[in-house]
## 1
Amino acid sequence: MELSGKSPTIRTHGEDPLNLETPPHSLRESFITPVERFFVRSHGTMPKVDPGGYTLTISGLVESSLDLTLKELKKRFPKKEMTAALHCAGNRRAELMQVRQIPGETAWGVGAIGNARWTGISLRDVLLEAGVDGDAAHVAFTGLDEVPLEDSVTRFGGSIPLEKALAGDVLLAYEMNGETLPRAHGYPLRVVAAGYIGARSVKWLSEIEVRGEPSENYFHARDYRLYPADADPGEADPAEGEPLGDLYVNCAICRPAEGELVSGDPVKVAGYATTGGGRGIERVEVSADGGETWSAADLTPGEDSGSWVFWEARVEPGPERREVHLLARARDTSGGVQPASPRQAWNPKGYVNNAYHRVNIRRTAA
Ligand SMILES: Nc1nc2c(c(=O)[nH]1)N[C@H]1C(S)=C(S)[C@@H](COP(=O)(O)O)O[C@H]1N2
Ligand SMILES: [Mo]
């Protein structure tokens, strides 16, 4: 498989389809996650696209459909750069699985996320060039990969509301961290929808369709929905599930990692925080006493609102405490807060867990 180019420390959840997770310490090593440590989430085949034969089509509720080669789209539209986190809706599912089982899904830790510098063209510019009809309300993307379902094969796809598509923070990216977009990340072109669940950032993009209704693709219409806690997602009417898009405020502790043996008092705690909707991270706090008292963290934001925020805090559990449960929580600029426990965040597909993050550490004798 296409593991070449990835760090040997990356955690493999599956090779076909390729699913790789960044270990917690690696996440916190650099503000921009290098490609070699960047997580991969794939549902099906990994297309090998010949750039010469590649075209992107833009059709549907537009005044003029467009058919663009890679060369044409680079020439015709201004180059745009953006720092944005890709955040998988399944990130932190492992904690939900400890509450109740979630069959058939990957047990992601805190590393189904990465922050990259993306270069490409703005989806807004492309849509304005095609001319959007008055009835348009959603923009659907389809990739070139084939995903086996129970008794059929489908392409991966999904849609975002037109308003988001025109907001200026959705890129059609052909470079990642200054390099040509790697094959595992969607070569030659992918969507990067800042602040939305990773599933809307369709890789190996081949079609954009402007529509009146959301995408009918399996991964939009059935999957990536927040079903009620007592629903069976295999049987449920999709209408029972809320479609996912905009991310909620979230944070995770990366250092120390779960089970780590730590010396010294105070203990330095570091991690990342994210949110959606163009909001910012207002505050991150850490507790070493089960949530009785909290210490505010120092924040390092990115240039763009879709970037993650790095944070670092110090807590003093007292030298005599040999086992410490660290908790972290964030608040965003719209007052969005996290649920205290994964029990509150639990849903049958295990999506968007944004509960307070807990890490259990052991400490050496003082
Ligand atoms: N075509 C296609 N696009 C896709 C996917 C996929 O399987 N096929 N996975 C999605 C999901 S669920 C996530 S989280 C991100 C992961 O992006 P990455 O593999 O570049 O980290 O890609 C999204 N885009
Ligand atoms: Mo995802």
Note: DSSP finds seven helices and 24 strands in the chain.
## 2
Amino acid sequence: MTPKKETTALHRDTLAVREAVARSQYGENSEALYLTSGYVQPSARAAAARFAGEEEGFTYGRYGNPTVASFEQRLAAMEGTEACMSTASGMSAILLMCMGLLKSGDHVLCSQSMFGSTIKLIGTDLAKFGVESTFVAQTDVSAWAAAVRPNTKLLFAETPTNPLTEVCDIRALADIAHQSGALLAVDNCFATPALQLPVTLGADIIMHSGTKYLDGQGRVMAGALCASQQLVTEKFLPVLKSAGMTLAPFNAWVVLKGLETLDIRMRAQSANALALGHWLEQCKSVQRVFYPGLASHPQHALAMRQQSGCGGAVLSFEVKADSPAQARERAFHVLDSMQVLSLSTNLGDTKTLVAHPASTSHGRLTDAQRQSAGVSQGLIRVAVGLEHIDDIATDLARGLETL
Ligand SMILES: *Cc1c(COP(=O)(O)O)cnc(C)c1O
């Protein structure tokens, strides 16, 4: 858990490499990795005070670790929140948030375009414990407003979404939440604090899958909730202590170091994605490109305003076809013709990852559900990495030009 901090005058670039460097007596320049599950207490009295929460100090690995605390403090500084609570994965961050804020009979309002596991966790798993939920159209502000109930405690949005990169208006959703006494949480996985600061637009909680761009090199699982000190101390920490979705110190260290290069990676990968989007729009075999950085995107203006003028590193496109069966066959041909890029459903790596959502991430949905999510058989998602843009385009052209 992050100790409360004075707001600092340093820029985010500086915080990304300098915040929360707690040096040991050896004066190491790089952040130390503390692999320990327990801590030796200086005295029985101190141990009692620490366990009672009356004195600062680590007691047990499930409750806290210096390396984990450094990651939390640095991410909080970059998101502009008072505090942060990290977790073992992005999904366990969402579980922690829901367990901390909701009880049986409460209602959560989400977008229907949220990450698939998020829809499953909130719509199915939490429903078993009496938590009610409604899923509305991502970009329709009036649908969000109309779905609020007296027992609505939480609005949860993700922007841009996967795989169609739909963008929602964070400030408008924050207003709707606050007018009804609810909180707004934003899944900031796709944009990251390098491009988008939801807290400056009124969001109360920023949720992360550190597995994606925060690590940035596809190495470890991690998650986090950035929020006020009060939410972290009173709502999240007690659940983490008993439920134990704790981030491992090694994973925290990897993600902590990943934060140092987040900004330059996001800008370079977004520039590659924009160039690839323009190239795909010229391809004769491409039906449509979905990318917030392109003028053709329905929420282009909002995205540019909300995401520091950057579209992000993920785009999707549809291959032309006469039928869903042909579309699927053509998409598979494009994927199987690649020689350089990775056929992988993950995202947030320096390596470009290409996937067919309809048969993988959205494969368990019914045809009707897939259709309402806009995931057609011809859709291909590209999480653009740091390879040279010409090599990325050439690898996709192998299949696109031989359909
Ligand atoms: C991957 C992802 C998650 C879940 O994170 P894990 O670290 O895989 O548990 C949540 N939201 C979005 C947008 C994601 O891409």
Note: The chain has two domains: 2-259, 263-400.
## 3
Amino acid sequence: MITSTVRTLATELTGDDLPAYVYDLPALRAHARAVRDALPPGLELYYAAKANPAPPVLRTLAPHVTGYEVASGGEAEHVRAAVPGAPLAFGGPGKTEGELRRALTLGVERFHVESEQELRLLAGAAEDAGIDAVDVLLRVNVPLASDELGGAALAMGGGPSPFGLDPEAVQRCLPLLSGAGSRGPLRLRGIHAHLASGLDAPAQLTVAAAIADWARKLSERHGLDDLTEVNVGGGMGVDYAHPDRRFDWAAYGKGMADLALRHPGRTLRIEPGRALTVYCGWYVTEVLDIKHSGGEAFAVLRGGTHHIRTPATKQHDQPFQVLPMDTTATWTRPWARPAVREEPVTLVGQLCTPKDVLARRVQVPELRAGDRVAFAMAGAYAWNISHHDFLMHPRPGFHYLDT
Ligand SMILES: *Cc1c(COP(=O)(O)O)cnc(C)c1O
């Protein structure tokens, strides 16, 4: 599963060049194209930039996505600069008045409004700026039957939630929106929902149908003819235990095509993050030491969860491949090379905390000091969610392969 370009670089880098993040941009391009091709042509695909906002990643995705979902003023500025001209949808809780003003100045195309107060702040900011038309999607905690979410890893809707608006609150927002009574600058263009993460394709389709049905009922009940957009969110599942079992985009695309037929005149939109970029990134490092304690083997790696916090936050084993380093030049010390063979080994980093574990008791044929370890699925929620400064180890190198 590791491509030869990533493997070659991983073995050519010296110990002092490690750890390194290696991004396989051709693999990202191929994956994004395959995802886009599996979706019906009318469905809009936004990329949730918070998953990985590195400019080469944003730019590689550009030909394959309709736009980008940004979740802060910082992301709005950053994505605007990295991919000028690409449509932006500004979501996220706790938008400040300053962020809203700046987003208006940047010409952000869609605002995903999360509360009644935010709607009022946005209206005020637009009036102050002399902007007479701002396109709004209300983020709604669309009610779902409890069995609809199945095995969701991170349920964000369907219960008490700091995100979005409950259906009752939506009623209170309508008078502030044009098309629903107000002559103010805010236009209600649609409904946005992001209810859960980690769903497989059938569960995603169930959730999408519930959101689209809810939007239709709202628009019929209140005669909202301009409510033409339904953003059903992201959260397409990935499987860290089985990197080769990917989200079934073909089944999802087919289901979304059927959903679009049932909702003529509405634009459906999705905004995945993780499932688009997770596979393109590798965190490559080397084994510094191997030791045994209490009868168990530990491999101490250069780097750790301050660079890739994903396994600590999600409490999983980060998938990895061992790249054996067999040249005699690798081991020049006058003592025996520390090694484990045919036994479970726990891969830890350099931090002084027992939480700095990347993978626990994983069976490996052989692992020796100096061998390289390439952690897979490090392209999303990896470097950018990590606490880099803890212990002041050097930062990793960053390599964006594009050949
Ligand atoms: C984080 C987030 C996404 C992307 O979620 P993934 O699990 O990365 O697909 C999309 N929309 C909203 C509102 C989010 O908060």
Note: The chain has two domains: 87-272, 279-401.
## 4
Amino acid sequence: MPRPIQATIHMAALQHNLKRARAAAPDAKVWAVVKANAYGHGIERTFDGLRGADGFALLELDEAQRMRDLGWRGPVLLLEGVFEPRDLEHCSRLGLWHTVHCDEQIEMLAAHKTHAPHRVFLKMNSGMNRLGFTPQRYRAAWSRLDALPQVDEISLMTHFSDADGPPGIAQQLAVFDAASQGLPGERSLSNSAATLRHMGALPVAGQAALQSDWIRPGIAGYGSAPDFPEHDAAYWGLLPAMTLQARIIGVQDLLPGDTVGYGSTFVAERPMRIGIVACGYADGYPRLCPSGTPVLVEGVRSRTVGRVSMDLLTVDLASAPAAGFGSMVTLWGRAASGLTLGIDDVARAAGTVGYELMCALAPRVPVQVD
Ligand SMILES: *Cc1c(COP(=O)(O)O)cnc(C)c1O
């Protein structure tokens, strides 16, 4: 028997979440962002759930090839564009659209031999200071691209640093609008947070209204809230697309003063039963989750005790007295009881975000699709 740990990808949740993103921006086309192997869910496994999107956005040629192998003939966008001249040949061959964010990428295009001109997304650095042309240099980059026979249509793009928090998008949006004013082409501005918070039916008070021809939801599609803990997934009507579960493979009865796990960080204050669960940090469960991190034991809310180790973690059985060897523990996602434990709640306990947990699901964990 394989080790009793299992991740489940929920097709219906992916479809539902995609509809939620669409509903927030009904006039926009949707890039389903499937970089990082669909945020750890698997490009092949999520395809049926996300194929209602208008296109797929990702980073790597290998992932783009996999989209084409799945039979997807629609738009595929490389969010970071190309890294070396040879990549452009693959763009031509696979019919990929690509971001252009720096002069080096324009040089590569100018030297590229192709019969079919490329559709490009010209990226502006509107204040985040990662990738993109500064507002001052944006128009010149557009003109250079426009003059290239290798380039077909040019779309305009930027990325917000604070769509999920109080600074909001107003300043970057104003910069983008001013620097792109009068330029033709479709606009793509909004990640999940910008889509839900600034375009949807529940706009955050006092924030600028946003138009975007192509939205770029990633995390929302997978059912995690981009602005947790201000809002949770339920607030946005999102459903978890990934459940991680493992069984209890050992039980211990503790007396007051007994300790649990490496470093003896947990000390029992009273007699208690604990379950030892076949999941550890080598499966992708964060080692930084302290005692008290929420879990569901047989669908009932409980907590971890002691340190997470490589292959095991430990849970308190007080709230599930009937639980024992073989009982199912839900680390995040949906339990058979119907109760849901948000990946965001677990991430917060570890001092991180749901994104990191789902992306870190380890290859050794078997994955099923339902
Ligand atoms: C990853 C990414 C997104 C998606 O962001 P979410 O917060 O997951 O919605 C959108 N745009 C770009 C450029 C990205 O790199």
Note: The two ends are 21 Å apart (CA to CA).
